[in-house]
Design goal:
Blueprint: E1 15-19, H1 26-35, H2 40-45, E2 51-69, E3 78-97, H3 99-108, E4 115-124, E5 131-138, E6 149-150, H4 158-170, H5 175-182, H6 196-204, E7 206-207, H7 209-214, H8 219-222, E8 233-237, E9 240-244, H9 255-261, H10 267-271, H11 286-290, H12 294-311, E10 318-324
Length: about 350
């Protein structure tokens, strides 16, 4: 950990970035870089070339709020945001990152569609000299995705808040700030069980990874020139295979997100949004996920259940197609309705 701002590299190609949400966690940000198509090869070869340095810092005249709200998502209903408030402060991590890392963060934050990139000045803990940096702020009038809005009073998920608290500790943020985070309320998640009709459908068709790939199209044929999804996406999670059809009402996120779920199993995709279990270097397989902590497993299962619930709603655009051979891994969690 650096002790002052002057120790940060002076490379003209690097970028100063102030993180205050889940990217406070350097280990979680590394997870994202290691799995993102734009940086995963670079991460394998030169992991330290993406995140160059980090240190704790303060942003003045802003307040942390969990007000970026997704009304249709009961698993991750709200995300962190900055709101201007005179004489308030927000503690965060000042990173020095490569342009490649910045490009990944732009995609994760939905730059221009969800969060806007803003230039701010932050004050490192151990310096009297402010540093210019970029951060991301969401404004209600500039959000372009209809599934998102700004709303106060919606608590974040336990998974999301836990990642922020862990990141605050990783970055050695002030103990009072960590205590402030620990006092935040969290949303409760609901689970559902398989009906006998669903279980029958699941057992009728067993898909292989090759089946998933053959029943889909390359990314450039899934998106139109406006990067809107125009073809159904088929993915599996926890051994269940779903088709998500945007033309039937299902809302799908950014291009970088679609790249990661297109024709793939996304169990580990969701697990990588959780904190890493210390015994696992990276969630590569579903068996790895089963070794995660309970909060991570609950989060992955909750996302599976959320797709199940959507698949039961006419016009939701989510259709349960069958299962993969890995479904047996989760039989103790996704058990039939009695």
């Amino acid at each position: 950990m650096l002790s002052n701002s002057e120790n940060l590299s002076s490379s003209t190609s690097s970028i100063k970035y102030f993180a205050y949400g889940s990217n406070l966690s350097k280990s979680l940000l590394e997870f994202k870089l290691s799995s993102n198509p734009q940086t995963k090869e670079r991460y394998k070869k030169e992991p330290s070339s993406l995140i160059l340095d980090s240190q704790p810092a303060i942003l003045k005249d802003f307040e942390l709020q969990f007000n970026l709200h997704i009304p249709t998502n009961n698993i991750d209903p709200s995300y962190a945001n900055l709101v201007y408030k005179k004489n308030s402060i927000v503690h965060g991590c000042l990173y020095e990152i490569s342009p490649e890392c910045k490009a990944v963060i732009d995609g994760l934050e939905g730059k221009g569609n969800v969060y806007q990139e803003e230039n701010v000045e932050v004050l490192p803990y151990f310096s009297t000299n402010p540093i210019a940096a970029v951060t991301y702020i969401a404004y209600k009038e500039q959000i372009k995705l209809p599934v998102l809005t700004i709303k106060e009073g919606v608590p974040p998920s336990k998974r999301y808040l836990k990642s922020i608290i862990s990141g605050a500790k990783e970055c050695n943020l002030d103990e009072k700030w960590i205590e402030f985070l620990q006092w935040q309320k969290v949303a409760t998640i609901t689970f559902t069980r398989l009906s006998s009709e669903e279980l029958k459908k699941i057992n009728e068709i067993v898909y292989t990874p090759q089946d998933l790939e053959s029943k889909n199209l390359p990314l450039e044929k899934v998106l139109n020139e406006k990067e809107q999804v125009i073809k159904p996406i088929i993915s599996s999670i926890c051994g269940l295979v779903f088709m998500c059809n945007p033309s039937k009402g299902f809302a799908i996120g950014s291009k970088s997100w679609i790249e990661q779920i297109l024709a793939r199993d996304i169990t580990t995709f969701y697990a990588r949004r959780c904190l890493r279990n210390k015994t696992i270097s990276l969630y590569e397989t579903e068996q790895d996920v089963l070794l995660a902590d309970r909060d991570c497993i609950d989060y992955v299962i909750a996302n599976t259940c959320n797709l199940l619930i959507q698949s039961r709603k006419e016009g939701a655009g989510v259709f349960l197609l069958g299962r993969t051979t890995n479904f047996d891994l989760w039989k103790d969690y996704l058990i039939p309705i009695s």
